User: Fold these one by one.
Assistant:
Number 1:
Amino acid sequence: MEAAFWHPLPAGRIQCDLCPRCCQLGEGQRGFCFVRKHEGGRMVLTTYGRSSGFCVDPVEKKPLNHFLPGTPILSFGTAGCNLGCTFCQNWDISKAREMDRLGSYARPEAVAVAAARSGCRSVAYTYNEPIIFLEYAVDVAKACRARGVQSVAVTAGYIHLEPAAVFFGAMDAANVDLKSFSESFYYHLTGGHLQPVLELLEYLVRETTVWVELTTLLIPGENDSDAELDALSRWVVDRLGPDVPIHFSAFRPDFKMLDKSPTPLATVQRARRIAQGNGVRHVYTGNVVDLEGGITCCHGCGARLIERVGYAVTGWRLGEGGRCLVCGVVCAGRFEAAHGVWGSRRLPVRIEG
């Protein structure tokens, strides 16, 4: 399928305008993401309609704690990525160079039908970077919206703002991976840059209706210092507001970063305290056993609004519109009067057609 966001260059070359890499390609060449290719004088998306697999997950696994809690979400990805993270936790998918590993073709309408039939309230574009399969994701999101199914992007947010308006215009929520608050970290460990991600976050929060949550994977000795965590959380409060939730997740050695130790529980708990101290109202911990780090509290009275064990909701004190049942203060998010009961189940789904 022909891809959007490119323009011709002299001598028969073209430039991809999707993300800040601005790959310039000769005939037959692929971009850094490997899935957008110069073919016949145009840019094509080589993975349109093809997935690495479908699975029904709890929405909390994305992670989203303020978007339809307790409900099931149909998750899928394709292959490739436009960043080169040495610590990638899904490297077998995001770094894939073999298109044959992808499953059978699934039309956007087939994905929407499968989501609705599975009782899913939303579909997640995840596992690899959904920005690079923008055309497929947007078509699936449109088909889902027609059936009352919402869409969630799990993304690193490395995209130009013009295509971002198209991509996120089809999304209802996003978890954006803010990998660090250091340009050096981005440049040396991801092959990208920090500023485009910060610009995207401000755009999403200030100019769209997309519900946004952030995730930062804490890597020992790389992005877990008090100074960086302080700067990151202060920026979030100052530029995005105190209601944007942050998930601090523990690193596990993977891909090209096998020399690091796993992140200690104490580190993610320290990050949570620093962010809370700077005014972030909702801070969570992930990839660790930490019951306190999964609780949503009212910023008005401190009541425990949502209690969780793993991905399962075990306590609920929210009324219509996300109001605290104790003091009436509204908790920011996309809530309904009752939570879902999907729990922590993971259910693979086969979709063809």
Note: The mean pLDDT is 95.
Number 2:
Amino acid sequence: MSAPQPLLSSDDRDKVAALQWYAKSVMEGLNVGQHRSPHKGVSVEFKEHRPYVRGDEVRSIDWKLFGKTDRLYIRQFEEETNLRATLLVDQSGSMKYAGARRPGPSKHQFAIRLAASLAYLFTAQHDAVGLATFDTKLRAYLPARSRPSHLHELMVQLATAECGGETKLAPVVETLAGKISRRGVVFLISDGFDDASSLLRSLQRIRQAPNEIVFFQVWHPDELDFPFSTRTQFRSLENTSHERLVDPHAFRVQYQRNLQRFRSELEEGCKQSRISLVSCTTADSHVAVLAHFLQQRGAKS
């Protein structure tokens, strides 16, 4: 089996490396790096060394190793992390949509590249990152880890993920709420095509842990401006037996009304639950979307 194509170009990685995520609240973990921990004297199992970076505590330096190598290394432990990030990536059928007007990435391709950028960002900060992919149920789950080899596993999982069938977001998020046992930040990358009230209730469960939640809602431009002008055969990407011949002129007004109602319910629900809702389209740069969000988040801190 040939190796999957890299999800991030060298230019993408350089741009992501210039970004920074700062924890807004006290996180669980040890007092290392830039994220402060409420715990002291935690006993954990030694895992590996990593190079010292500016901001690490001097007391964490392995001075014996320094004497042998003349280089500064930090003793890193299995449970040591500045922050735990979990990426929830939708691979349901609706995410396959890539547009009817011009060639471009599908919503799923955009989602996995955005997830790869987040994974690269947190791993570069020596933070732990985990991944869950799903459609009607959980398809793959990698618990949060911070070691470089884990990043490779995560990238392979993203690169080989394939879209499945129907969407059942709320039950899957409920399942994942039980797996995210330590507070951190959870990223949902999805088009959000499910019952809005059910999805919001499931996200509130994760939010109460408490976790910070960022919902990157991925759209294709076609879904927002409905560009169709001639009679068009629409077929469900989640259930191919469902199809309908539509006169766009007669359908457009009702479609846009339903779309606005759906978006407004999600926006209001996320606002009430203090969930960051970031709307983006496949026409955007995934790195630019992430950079813009981090800039706005930093301005609100």
Note: The chain has two domains: 10-18+81-300, 46-77.
Number 3:
Amino acid sequence: MNDQVMTDTVPTKYWHALDDGRIQCDLCPRFCKLHEGQRGLCFVRANQNDQIVLTTYGRSSGFAVDPIEKKPLNHFLPGTPVLSFGTAGCNLACKFCQNWDISKSREMDTLMDRADPETIARAAEELGCRSVAYTYNDPVIFHEYAIDVARACQSRGIKSVAVTAGYVCPEPRAEFYRYMDAANVDLKAFTERFYRKICGGQLLPVLETLEYLTHETDVWVETTTLLIPGENDSDEELESMTRWVVEHLGPDVPMHFSAFHPDWKMMDKPHTPAETLIRARQIAMKNGVRYAYVGNVHNKACDSTYCHQCGELLIGRDWYQLSEWNLTAQGCCTACGAQCAGVFDTKPGDWGAKRLPVTLSHYRAHV
């Protein structure tokens, strides 16, 4: 499909017909069953002419160059710029969504920028980006578009990063991650109650995605949990979550604990205290997580990387700005020689904390 003439609607393959005349979408565990003309909960996959189509191919809610640490990925090409983009819609219904204007959009006018895969890859290359991130909304729902962009990027030596909730079925998951180099997976909580009540989904498929990525692919994986006061921030839940990560994924998978701020349908909840994030980090490290970070708060000590063996400061971070760098060209601690898990260049990037909005009209002009 990478030679696709630009169009909004393209056919998909993860669906099957039901005996009652509806079509079932098999991309994610929602299994939306749709009559002709209906859209799934994600809003962008629809039953048209007795097949499931993607209605947003080649359309984006916008492009920007970000620091890779903003995804957040702290162990994947630190300091480098990443070209970020998303589309519209989402296959979960998180009441706390902090990108709700994009993920819950029902207005296709939200998709203001058009770009074919080759244009995105060319823009990333000319902007000096080491990678492209599929973010703002979950790339699972624009599966076909994301894969085509990743293939175009691959041919130019540009990496692909998925920022995702991990809510996807096994067959499309395997196809999707053949083209991804890194992923930050939202582990939104560690109870089925939270996923059902707050997100309209299930926890188990997310855990299965995490285990698949860490044990059956070469994709670099980090997780993020947005801690919401009174919902998923208890010691008991954090103990269970972090022990599961170490036991099932291994101690080298970095965990990010981020601060919630009131948004969308959870305006009644308070901001997450910084102390909660620090406590979560301490619990994670006590249980064997080697790399744990806090997010959405200013705390250089808790957002820097330390050697798991000798405690040496390896990578200093102040928000998204790198400072100290005590890794060898092979990614080892300069003090004791222990390997730091991750994907590192011989030297860190110097993009810093900048955010650069990008329009792709200039890059389309070269087609």
Note: Residues 1-6 have pLDDT under 50 and may be disordered.
